[in-house]
Specification:
eight-stranded parallel β-barrel; two-stranded antiparallel sheet; TIM Barrel; alpha/beta; about 35% helix; 10 helices
């Protein structure tokens, strides 16, 4: 059972939130699929469940899926291909401890009742292991395919957020573009814990104040460390100014892990480096207030299972 009395605990929400996110500490997760596919937008998806089970056994904190409805050529990455809700449900039955994250549900492309129903179902079936990232979407090609407008996605994101939040209570009431609820019907199940932990991705077409007032955490894109430090510091100050407690911050990081002593090299949204230098880099991120980094192995040149074990031996012990 989680000890929620410790001073380094963020607001108590569910098992995943309070195990992955700790004040002043960094945890490490993985972005699915767990394979390299540097020269294709589409992964093979071979041996994924076995690798995710291995990652759980090795002690990685979370597995993150992405919401990619369409394979958009200009985007260049089809993600894990499978529908994230179906896949999360499958993984909930195949794992026991690892947090199951979605980074992130594109709220304007889905009815919030469906998002709430799916997310709370995963949360309950996994005994509180869901982390729900939410986003406004950044691929304009997907919107006309669903007969939706790209320009007003920020407004619809806010309304969808409010709708999902309202669903956590009994006899929910809501009125807006997504429909009317007058308290006469209810949506089940309810979240496993206090509520669904909803982490906002990037700006999501919202003001900094709105993000500070509403998110259970913030998912940032990778940046140079000084810039990231300033963004985190400013946001934490803004969050505290609203009267809320601190909220966690996380980011992804593409890595190509090598075993020699070559100097770190920049790759797309990440680094090619050895384990020692990765530890140093992650320690620097921990020092500026990041609470979780999700490693993406898409551009990793070594065998995936060997890399997972190498990370578990040489990197994870520094962050436990």
């Amino acid at each position: 059972m989680l000890d929620t009395t410790q001073p380094n605990t963020f607001p108590v929400i569910n098992r995943a939130y309070n195990s992955v996110f700790q004040k002043g500490r960094l945890s490490i997760g993985l972005v699915a699929p767990l394979e390299a596919y540097p020269n294709s937008a589409v992964p093979t998806m071979q041996d994924q469940v076995e690798r995710i089970k291995l990652a759980e056994q090795l002690g990685f904190a979370a597995i993150w899926l992405r919401d990619v409805p369409f394979n958009v050529p200009s985007f260049g990455d089809a993600g894990q291909i499978f529908d994230p809700w179906v896949y999360l449900g499958h993984l909930a039955g195949q794992t026991q401890q690892v947090a199951l994250g979605l980074a992130s549900a594109v709220l304007p492309l889905r009815h919030p009742a469906h998002v709430a129903k799916a997310a709370t179902s995963i949360d309950v079936l996994s005994n509180g292991r869901l982390l729900l990232g939410i986003a406004s979407g950044d691929r304009p090609d997907e919107y006309p395919a669903l007969s939706m407008s790209f320009e007003d996605r920020g407004e619809r994101f806010r309304e969808a957020y409010g709708y999902i939040r309202n669903m956590a209570g009994a006899a929910p009431v809501h009125q807006g573009g997504y429909g009317k609820l007058d308290g006469s019907v209810d949506l089940l199940p309810k979240p496993y814990g206090a509520r669904l932990p909803m982490l906002i991705t990037g700006g999501s077409q919202q003001s900094p104040d709105w993000i500070a007032q509403n998110g259970d955490g913030w998912m940032l894109y990778p940046r140079d460390t000084p810039t990231q430090a300033k963004i985190i510091s400013d946001w934490r100050a803004r969050t505290l100014y609203t009267g809320r407690d601190e909220q966690p911050v996380m980011q992804p990081l593409y890595v190509d892990l090598v075993e020699n002593r070559q100097a770190p090299q920049a790759i797309h949204l990440g680094l090619r480096l050895n384990a020692r230098d990765l530890v140093s880099y992650l320690k620097a991120l921990e020092g500026i207030g990041l609470n979780h980094v999700a490693l993406n192995l898409r551009f990793n040149q070594a065998d995936t299972e060997r890399t997972l074990k190498h990370l578990a031996e040489h990197v994870l012990p520094e962050f436990t």
